[in-house]
Amino acid sequence: MTRRNGLALAAALAGTLTLPLGAHAQDAAFSGGTIKLGILNDQSGTYAEFGGRSSVEAAKMAVEDFGGKLNNIPIEILNADHQNKPDIASSIARQWYDRDGVDAIMDLTTSSVALAVQGLSKDKKKITMVTGAATSELTGKQCTPYGFHWAYDTRALAVGTGGALVQQGGDTWFFLTADYAFGYSLEEETSRYVKSKGGKVVGAVRHPLAAQDYSSFLLQAQGSGAKVIGLANAGNDTANTIKQASEFGISEGNQRLAALLFTLAEVHGLGLKVAQGLTLTEGWYWDLNDETRAFGQRFMKRTGKMPNMVHMGTYSAVLQYLKAVKAAGTDETEAVTKQLHALPVDDVFARGGKVLPNGRMVHDMYLFEVKKPAESKSEWDLYKHLATIPGAEAFAKAEESGCPMTMR
User: Fold this and answer.
1) Residue 9 included in any domain
2) How far, CA to CA in Å, does 387 sit from each of 160, 161, 325?
3) Which domain of life is it from (predicted)?
4) What pLDDT sits at residue 296?
5) Which of 33, 103, 106, 327 could form a disulfide with 339 if both were Cys (CB 3.0 to 4.6 A apart)?
């Protein structure tokens, strides 16, 4: 008898005294007698504040808001630090699937990690719901039947921040790009959008993930004469780039910095004195309405911070997965996948969201400007809402994504 079968049998036997009539049939529909979800992300490196332990708390909040159980079937959240390394992430995911009976994995910060785990999950016929990685390739050329992209992607960031700055006269761009899949995708998407609006890309330079010194890259950007320096990086990389650009006086000249992926967590860490005036795109903000403010306060009590779009995307993905399992009456992958495509997304993160055939969840995005210190009324009062970008405009249509599943 395998360990998993032994655990399932023990759970079934233990339940005979307490579960209602029909519970054994319910157990049979759930592998291992437990619904297990994994939150796999960076908890110690460049993107630790971007998602990290706060995404784990967001997942736990989703389970609690769902009710903690499904028809008396317990729901368990596992988590691990992939250290931004695809091989480590794949090893953890394989162990979760093969040994621990995990049904689905969420977050997956870092595009190279997300692509690797999504590929493994396709082979294992397991569901991934990416909330922390950006590359649109996840629902493009490398889409899979069981892969979903939830919070944002490089195209939405390009349309939001890139589009806004071009409209404001920023028609020449130089990119400072993280040297891996995410950076390439963000530079490519933004370049395409800038050019489509009549702008021009005059050059680019690439830096390693988690670099310490950006001076040589910034000097190249400064020397290019471009009106906009597009930061195709994220997390601490973006924060450190902005700090050093401020020290060089770049933002005081005729060049503007475009933080193409920058969230509330990084803005808070950087401080308004340095971050003020930045234009950025997020999929959520705690101060949009009464509902978001109430959730933000709940999250604050648990974590000591307000959530960003990655944390909220993880909350939404976990909650929607559980809704899909409930609708399917099983955690069997094909049945749950069908429900994930069919069910509307309606929660505190996304209102009126829908999932396209390629797995892209479409929802509104928001364009913000970081406030000046004098404009802020409290520690987390950091954004001015400039515009709402409708989901149909922010995200590519499935047939335009390059996903082979939509081109049959």
Assistant:
1) no
2) 9, 11, 35
3) Bacteria
4) 98
5) 327
Instruction: Report the alpha-carbon distance of residue 276 to residue 256 in Å, rounded.
Output: 12
The pLDDT of residue 26 is above 80: no
Instruction: Say how far apart CA 32 and CA 34 lie, in whole Å.
Output: 5
**Residues 217-274 pLDDT 10s:** 999 999 999 999 999 999 999 999 999 999 988 877 789 999 999 999 999 999 999 9
| pLDDT for the residue numbered 17 | 29
Q: Is the pLDDT of residue 386 over 70?
A: yes
Is pLDDT of 25 > 50?
Answer: no
Separation between Cα atoms, residue 246 and residue 233, nearest integer Å: 17
CB 373, CB 274: distance < 8 Å: no
Query: What tokens does 196 get?
Result: 């489509």
In sequence order, what DSSP letters do the residues of 176-245 get, joined into one string? EEESSHHHHHHHHHHHHHHHHTT-EEEEEEEE-TT-S--HHHHHHHHHHT-SEEEEE--HHHHHHHHHHH
What strands lie across the sheet with 279-282, from one edge to the other? 279-282, 365-370, 383-389
Say whether both 107 and 47 belong to one domain. yes
CA triple 247-251-257, angle to 5 deg: 110
Rounded distance, CA 164 to CA 157, Å?
10
376 and 359 share one domain? no
Domain shared by 146 and 178, yes or no: no
Same domain, 371 and 235: yes
Which pLDDT belongs to residue 29?
Answer: 73
Query: Is the domain of 336 the same as that of 191?
Result: no
pTM: 0.91
Q: How many domains does the chain have?
A: 2
CATH code of the domain covering residue 215: 3.40.50.2300
Structural domain boundaries, residue 213: 155-282+366-393
Q: Are residues 125 and 174 in the same domain?
A: no
Q: Domain check: are 260 and 370 in the same one?
A: yes
| pLDDT on residue 9 | 31
Report d(CA 337, CA 342) in Å as an integer: 9
C-alpha 209, offset from chain centre: 18
Q: Residue 21: is its pLDDT beyond 90?
A: no
Give the DSSP H or E segment for 258. strand 256-259
Q: Please state, as a whole number, how many other Cβ atoms lie within 10 Å of the Cβ of residue 381.
A: 14
